Amino acid sequence: MMVEQATIGDLPVIVAMRQEASDWLAKKGINQWAVAWPNPEAQAERILSSIRAGETWMIRTDDGDTAATVALDSFSDPQLWTESEQAEPALYLHRLIVRRKFAGLGDDIVEWACRRAGQLGNHWVRIDVWTDNVGLHRYYEQRGFKHVRTLELDYPSGALFQRAATDWREQADADKLAEQPQNLPTSSPN
Ligand SMILES: CC(C)(COP(=O)(O)OP(=O)(O)OC[C@H]1O[C@@H](n2cnc3c(N)ncnc32)[C@H](O)[C@@H]1OP(=O)(O)O)[C@@H](O)C(=O)NCCC(=O)NCCS
């Protein structure tokens, strides 16, 4: 598996993956992502601007098949995170989606994100999770994330979690996900 930065051509792929994920969740009776937030245009624009900023990643097989996607950025939303939290160097994980035929890959992506955050000098990987989706809260807790707090806002993902970024001194070189050489920032964007 390779991790590479998404390009603009990946936008429809990501939108389709999100749809596939929400259809799968709906069959399980979970309403997360049932409606684009706040609307489909704004959602596509958010994904596009993340791609343009080099903050969306695609995980592909050696054959070029897309297995998963994730976004990682350093924007600390003041609606969600306190001033002192915003002052801490952190990467924020968004839109983690693993296509169903690659289920199980999420562990490696979470580890990759924590290593990347550490390499870039961050202390935390943070995520805002669908407020009432306790199954998903459990998913992140089982992967080392700690619940920070749950906010009741006009925003569907008010359950905040964080995990310490992997200390660069402890980083094993046995990365399962190889990163393709590219123009990556070499220092913390924070
Ligand atoms: C969350 C996700 C990335 C995890 O991928 P993964 O680590 O490869 O693992 P799986 O897809 O096998 O999911 C692991 C477990 O979490 C559950 N799960 C996954 N997404 C879930 C969700 N959104 N809500 C509730 N449970 C969820 C799965 O049903 C599975 O449960 P099981 O072990 O009882 O079968 C992937 O399931 C996915 O793309 N989910 C839909 C999109 C999503 O919710 N992304 C997270 C946004 S914060």
Automatic annotation (TrEMBL):
- Show the InterPro entries listed in the entry: Acyl_CoA_acyltransferase, GNAT_dom
One GO molecular function term of this record is: acyltransferase activity, transferring groups other than amino-acyl groups
- Show the Pfam families listed in the entry: Acetyltransf_1 (PF00583)
Question: For the region Disordered, what residue ranges are annotated?
Answer: 171-190
Q: Which UniProt keyword terms apply here?
A: Transferase
Stretches with biased composition (Polar residues): 180-190
| Family annotation (PROSITE patterns) | GNAT
Tell me yes or no: is Transcription among this UniProt entry's keywords. no
The coiled-coil segments of this chain are none
Work out whether the entry's keyword set contains Transferase: yes
**What residues does the N-acetyltransferase domain cover?**
1-173
Can you say what this protein is called? Putative N-acetyltransferase YhbS
Organism of this sequence = Kribbella italica
From the broadest rank down, the organism's phylogenetic lineage runs:
Bacteria, Bacillati, Actinomycetota, Actinomycetes, Propionibacteriales
